[in-house]
């Protein structure tokens, strides 16, 4: 009996497979079954591509702008460092004699009082902060 049952089960399985194959080969099922997944796949592809490009292109533009700003900032910092170094060296070479200071003020066309008021120094030798007006 066991052999007859196995043969019957085998026959049923092959019958189900042939019906499933026949359904998948029908013209109507084949046309709808093949186009719909392609349309969904293409729609997902284009949506993904749009999302990728809409987020990547502005990010690349911003990155390029940031690199340009960083370069300008680095150049400005380097120029300020160079100027600071030059001014420190210049200050080291300055004579601190009162006559030399008066001659330098005269070359600039300033009186000692005008120079002191220009740099926010009180005549009584008290230092004030220069107002940013």
Describe this structure in words.
The structure is a single chain. The model is unreliable at 126-133 (pLDDT under 50). The chain has 4 helices and no strands. The chain is mainly alpha-helical. It has 2 domains: 31-94; 96-128, no CATH class. 81% of the residues lie in helices and 0% in strands. It is rod-shaped. The chain starts with a helix and ends in a 15-residue tail after the last helix. The chain has helices spanning 2-24, 27-93, 98-108, 112-118.
How many whole angstroms does the radius of gyration measure?
A: 44 Å
Order of helices and strands: HHHH
Q: How much helical structure, as a percent, in the residues?
A: over 70%
Mean pLDDT: 78
Low-confidence stretches: 126-133
Beta-strand residue fraction: under 5%
Number of domains: 2
Helix/strand/pairing class, anyone? mainly alpha
End-to-end separation in angstroms reads 111 Å
| Largest sheet features | none
What would the principal axes of the Cα set say about the shape? rod-shaped
Total strand segments: 0
Number of helices: 4
Features:
about 130 residues, mainly alpha, 4 helices, disordered C terminus
Short description:
The protein has 2 domains: 31-94; 96-128, no CATH class.
Topology, pairings included?
Blueprint: H1 2-24, H2 27-93, H3 98-108, H4 112-118
